[in-house]
Amino acid sequence: MPSVFLAFVFRILSKYHPIFFGLYLSGTILHELTHFFAGALTNAQPVHFSVFPRRMTGNHWVLGSVSFANIRWYNAVFVGLAPVLILMVPILITFGRANLGRSYGWWDLGVAALVAPIFLSFWPSRADVLIALRSWPYLIPIAIWLWWISH
Fold first, then answer.
1. How far apart, in whole angstroms, are the C-alpha atoms of residue 8 and residue 139?
2. Where do the TM regions start and end (predicted)?
3. The domain containing residue 32 runs over which residues?
4. Count of domains in the chain?
5. 18 vs 27, 102, 119, 123, 149, CA distance in Å?
6. Whole-angstrom Cα distance, residue 23 to residue 130?
């Protein structure tokens, strides 16, 4: 829970000054790495990787990006929605801490600060969703299956 609270604080601070984007760094790196590895595993052919923030139009910032040479209908959904997988990191940390039976210490605040950006970065961006929608042929069997189980 401290990580979720810190994520909320990081989100508020980042609205006041771009320097606070540094608080997002661990989450941004994981977000972009999931795109990169999903693209590499599904033959999307990643060609560019960046985690350096850059200002776009107005007050809009892009914190990181990965470019691909071969986004196709069969791999777009995996590449676009890959950041959802980073939610496994806090889940694994939580289960690991609970199963080891260790008491919590001050160093856990540092762990919470590193995990907090994950709660800000696991959501696929608008661009990610648009890429995932290129996999619309997957929607046909999913829609048929959903209709079948509901009747």
1. 34
2. 73-93, 105-123, 129-149
3. 2-150
4. 1
5. 16, 37, 19, 20, 48
6. 26
Distance CA 1, CA 18 (A): 26
From CA 113, how far away is CA 109, in angstroms rounded? Answer: 6
pLDDT digits (tens, 9 = 90+) for 87-134: 888 778 777 776 776 666 777 777 777 777 777 788 888 888 898 888
* Assigned token pair, 84: 């959802």
Q: Is the pLDDT of residue 71 over 90?
A: yes
DSSP-derived secondary structure letter, 76? H
Whether the per-residue pLDDT at 38 is higher than 90: the answer is yes
What is the pTM for the complete model shown?
0.74
Place of tokens 């560019």: 48
- CA terminus-to-terminus distance, the chain: 40
- Identify the bridge partners of residue 55 per DSSP, sorted by sequence position: 61
